Amino acid sequence: MDPDTKDALKQLDSLLAHADQSWLFGAGISYSANIPLMGPLTQRVFAKAASQGGRAKEVLDAVKEALPDGCHIEHILSHLGDLAAVAERSREKKVKVGSIEIEQPEFSALHADYLRWIAETIRWGFVPANGDTAEKVGSRQNPIVTVENHSNFVSALFNRGQAGLAERRGPVRFFTVNYDTLIEDALAIQCVSYWDGFAGGALAFRCHHFGDEEPTSDYRAFLIKLHGSIDWHLGKDGRVWRVREGDLYPEKTSRVLIYPQATKYIATQRDPFASQFDLFRRSLADRGENVLAVCGYSFGDEHINQELELALDRPDNKTTILAFVSGVNPTLSGWRKKPWANRLYIISSAGIYVGERGPLAPPKAGATHDWWKFDGVTKLLNTGAEAYVV
Asked: Exposed site from 231, 242, 244, 328, fewest CB < 10 Å?
């Protein structure tokens, strides 16, 4: 093994064991848990709309027709959110979607249906058809979502990867754009105490607000869901509640979800999202040496990419990014030319890139590394980087 590769692997192990670390998760970490990515999720919502009939499918088709090719359900819902705002402001309380004119109450009801279908699909699971394999649809009676990979990751991170650090480290921060509850479920299964901005039990209320300090109690993890959650609801009184599936109380107005498109900037100025992104910015602005590991995130959300780049561009910033990705995407390619590129590690199927160097530790001829996948990261935490590639 050449010295550069050996040094890169040693540095990777050191960074993964850093006492001040955070993680940023995207949809990719839940794919193996039978929660669909955006493409199949979009197909599922359209299928649900077609089975319901009436305006549900017509409105989705009209919005999709108005958007660029390749749009998915988050783009569509963002557009619907803009149209809902237009309907609310208009004198007649109507909005036109393509050739369809809809009154605001019906439009809001349709929007609520779409959110419910998304939440149900994520809660119970969905695997699209693949070749001769039929699709699998989870339900309340027969859920297909699994937590095994998330639980194994948490075990590796806290029980092995962080061995010996308990006395000299703060909580690990988990930032996620996912709506599912698998990270918090895995933390509970592994008996890792965590804080998520709510107080209560199975029914909980949002107690953290914009500008509040983080708790100082002995939590081992902080969980910050940047885009909301399938079990978050907005109450009639404006409070945000975490509610069990199926509960009829407290009285709710809508699910709380956020979509990374046009309406995002406005939405993030209000709680709970203002406080979530405030916590994200505070973590990135830490002037001490710290590590942000990124997994399951394809760098397709410009809002989050801008937050990362703005923080790293600061002369006093000492954050090191570990990007676990299948390959070097355009965003990462641009960052490799930045002055701070020596603090950017890209752990890919082709090897490790450190700044403009790489790939180091390439796989054997004809093979690829899988350490960029969620279960691969778990294996990496358990075995160490050098042992992983031997």
From this structure: 244
For the beta carbon of residue 270, count every other beta carbon within 10 angstroms. Answer: 11
Range of the domain at 56: 38-137
Cis peptide before 362 (omega within 30 of 0): no
Beta strands 172-176 and 21-25, pairing class: parallel
Q: What's the confidence (pLDDT) of residue 269?
A: 47
Domain boundary among 98, 117, 137: 137
For the four alpha carbons of 52, 40, 82 and 177, in that order, the dihedral sign comes to positive
Domain end: 137, 165, 200, which one? 137
Q: Residue 151 — φ and ψ, nearest 5°?
A: -65, -40
Q: What is the pTM of this model?
A: 0.91
Q: Are 210 and 109 part of one and the same domain?
A: no
Q: Where are the beta strands (DSSP E) in 160-308?
A: 172-176, 194-195, 198-200, 204-206, 221-225, 228-235, 240-242, 252-257, 290-295
pLDDT tens column, 208-231: 988 888 887 789 999 999 988 999
The SS3 of residue 35 is: coil
* Claim to verify: residue 172 and residue 277 sit in the same structural domain: yes
For 157-203, the pLDDT digits (tens) are 998 655 555 555 689 999 999 999 999 999 999 999 999 999 998 89
Residues 52 and 90 in one domain: yes
